[in-house]
Amino acid sequence: MSRQILVNAFAMNTPTHLVSGTWRDPDSQSWRYKDLAFWTDLVQHLERGLFDGLFIADVLGIYDVYGGGPEAALRGGVQVPVNDPLLLVSAMAHVTEHLGFGVTASTTFDHPYTLARRFSTLDHLTRGRIGWNVVTSYLNSGARNIGLDRQLGHDERYDVADEYLEVAYKLWEGSWEDDAVVRDLDRHVFADPAKIHPIGHEGKHFRVPGIHLAEPSPQRTPVLYQAGASGRGRAFAGQHAEAVFLAVPTEAIGAARVADIRARAVAAGRDARDVKVFSSYTVVVAETDAEAHRKHDLYRSYLEPEATLALWSGWTGFDMASYDPDEPLRLVPSDAVHSTAELLGNGDWTVRDLVEQAAGLRPGGAFAVGSPATVADRIQEWVEAIDADGLNLCNVITPGSYVDFVDLVVPELQRRGVYRTSYDEGTLRRKLFGRGDRLPDTHPAARHRADVSRQSAVPAR
Amino acid sequence: MSRQILVNAFAMNTPTHLVSGTWRDPDSQSWRYKDLAFWTDLVQHLERGLFDGLFIADVLGIYDVYGGGPEAALRGGVQVPVNDPLLLVSAMAHVTEHLGFGVTASTTFDHPYTLARRFSTLDHLTRGRIGWNVVTSYLNSGARNIGLDRQLGHDERYDVADEYLEVAYKLWEGSWEDDAVVRDLDRHVFADPAKIHPIGHEGKHFRVPGIHLAEPSPQRTPVLYQAGASGRGRAFAGQHAEAVFLAVPTEAIGAARVADIRARAVAAGRDARDVKVFSSYTVVVAETDAEAHRKHDLYRSYLEPEATLALWSGWTGFDMASYDPDEPLRLVPSDAVHSTAELLGNGDWTVRDLVEQAAGLRPGGAFAVGSPATVADRIQEWVEAIDADGLNLCNVITPGSYVDFVDLVVPELQRRGVYRTSYDEGTLRRKLFGRGDRLPDTHPAARHRADVSRQSAVPAR
What we know:
The structure is a homodimer. Chain A is of the alpha/beta class.
């Protein structure tokens, strides 16, 4: 049987997520991001298309590396203004039944005690359809606004994140036993204190002595997404992530990355298939190849080099403002920076090429343009070549890119037997892995369940 | 013309908010607090009843003063487990058109840079129906879990809150000019950097140099609720609050509190009527007085002294666990503690009396029991006697207490010409005050608008 393909939609609570300038298209509704109906309509399209989920990126900060200031990002509306993504979820859950929600939240901006309650709340309200995209944040402009001079160093951020997750696991998995809420009408007992345990966490970065504030939710720990591209980030993903979002420019880089992540999962005592890999991918589809290419040309014509480079400069730390558009690029690849940088040392790329690549519209990589059959061919090739589980589908036009995919590509993939024809029942985790609602015993969170039996004689405090 | 009466519903994302034991009633659905449909059904009832808003309390922490531990609170399910209230809003906004949402968030647990974005996001998604109940938090059990040894001192918490609001005002009112988002198709400009200003805040407690992340929302600053009962809290309210939630046990105490708050508003250069006072109030209503009294007796029979005292001990800091139920109470009133304490020095109260009073079910104070006509009489007397603008309506049974009020009391108040018969159009602030969407010029937030013209020549950074 051919490989089944999972699909998340990749969006952000902002006018322009990744493809600059397309907000000028008459069909774009991206400026309606602040309108609740924009989101409730979008997710109903996604559920009609049997998507696994909506994956929402976020940044807390602005892109101010390019030209030494935020002007280019503001002019382009790229990832600024940007609203909070978690607050969209309950409305989207109300109008859907199966769609999952993978939402970005940073270990830098919120305390684990409050973040854990937020995700437990959403796991309850969605009946187990919430995922958390764990990020450590990369924009110094954001860190400065919460009183830090700059972000912590890259590896130190991950050390904090390791302890952050430990605290969250203890709260989610170890504090309330499954049967702690008894609602015993005769004994007049709502919850049994003997089954609710303080986590007593005393670490290097966090001290959380008390109990979790939320009762056990369907999944307890939300489905854990992660997108770290660096070596330290991939180690983190191999240990913790259940789903990895991967943005890679070529099959070769993608295949190496996926193999590395699966190997790291195995090294951490997990199964290579315990990590679902969603590869960032862009599609321009129409009834015919010719029509799709016309759309592609139109979308490329919208691209604003300055706005795209504002994003890319923020991702990589290279200020691209001084480069001429037709200048060949010779940059040194770095493990810590965006994967497109790996390409730049190898070829005769100009700034224009980089803009098209960074926007996801450059043929040859994680991009398909054409008829439904052509696009389906490319997607199957890509997913198999890099050993991904599915796509994190980027938008060029919202909601148009997703509506096109649902109407044209999904039926083609279904005809080929590589895409679901109905949803399975149950939580997001159950749907993704075909087993239980809770994390498997091989996951590092599971060890904190043991606390429940060990501490059960200790009174709650 | 008789005084018009405003009504908020007063709820919490928890099985038991204020009245212990009634979760055992067959009609109670309070344990469904974690179910989205519970909330979307509730707010549709409230909007049918033309309520001004839903006011949602919150605590981050557990009540562990009583008996030196959280066991009593857990057994009673009183304000624990407790889920995040902000995450309910978008779903509730989706199913309503006019209802306001006043949501509690603490200046202790989130940074103003992230909190400001959360409320801007909700002001957009609700089209200007969001309010923020500003609290400084009182539970040491919560503070310990974010790494503090205990809460800051009471007055110091308000000093932090003053600066916290200053930061938030700068972000909401001073960062983006109204016409900063231009969406200029010809010039390819989404937002004009010259109209977006860094706030450059350097204070004692916070340093926030950058711009707000959200574009201007309908109300900019959410409608500001406050509930401080202490002198310092009332000074804070007089300066900042547009709506005050007041919990007072007698007309005399209520009238003095309201007069004090209005005087403090005037002293701060505002109008006495720029602060809407919502008085905490409990209603048990039925078709006849006799039937209502039977319901009242039933509800009183559910009360769990231990659970109610767990709340009261948390509010006041007095551990009531060692008191006998029939023991006379002689406590020293304190400015900083819950207003019921003011009663205890004056009369021959027993613990049982205190339980009934703290639960809101003791006749004589902010409580009415009877037929719709009887209840309407009491409400009108109470509101006029203390010079309140309306009620913060507590629930005994959810959603039953609100459904009863909507079905029985609202029509009676409407017949008397003291309750609206339709909603006005517009934002929550416009509905409450009958003027604009934004704060009036006399509010302290307004001075941060001046920054816009002063800074407009400075490039955004």
